[in-house]
Amino acid sequence: MEIIKTTKKVYKVLDITREPFMKFETFRGAREHIGLSVQRTCFNCHKKFIDADNIYLAITTGGNKLLCEECAKLAIKDLDSNRG
After folding, report:
1. pTM given for the model
2. 24 lies in a domain?
């Protein structure tokens, strides 16, 4: 017997930084220094961040999330097309 449960949660991007939020290395170091957890992958495509990556901050209906540059560009394009 197999029981499979799948939960789908939809996040709406409300806003996103137009310029890189900061380098992942800086973000990771600051969070680890004070004992906080670190989101190590893009929230959308799950690309693993390396220290040299620029990260983008997305404000979503589920809280703040980090995106890679490619996903941020898609989110910005979608926000701009929906605004007018």
Report:
1. 0.86
2. yes
Q: Which residue has the tokens 């409300």?
A: 14
Question: Which tens digit of pLDDT belongs to each residue from 62-77?
Answer: 999 999 999 999 999 9
Task: State the residue range of the domain holding 38.
Answer: 13-83
Contact residues for 62 (Cβ-Cβ < 8 A; gap 6+): 9, 11
Can you read off the two tokens belonging to residue 27? 């973000």
Which DSSP helix (H) or strand (E) runs through 1?
none
Instruction: Show the tokens assigned to 62.
Output: 């589920």
Count of domains observed in the chain = 1
23-75 per-position pLDDT tens digit? 999 999 999 999 999 999 999 999 999 999 999 999 999 999 999 999 999 99
DSSP string, 19-77: S--EEHHHHHHHHHHTT-----B-TTT-PBP-TT-EEEEEEETTEEEEE-HHHHHHHHH
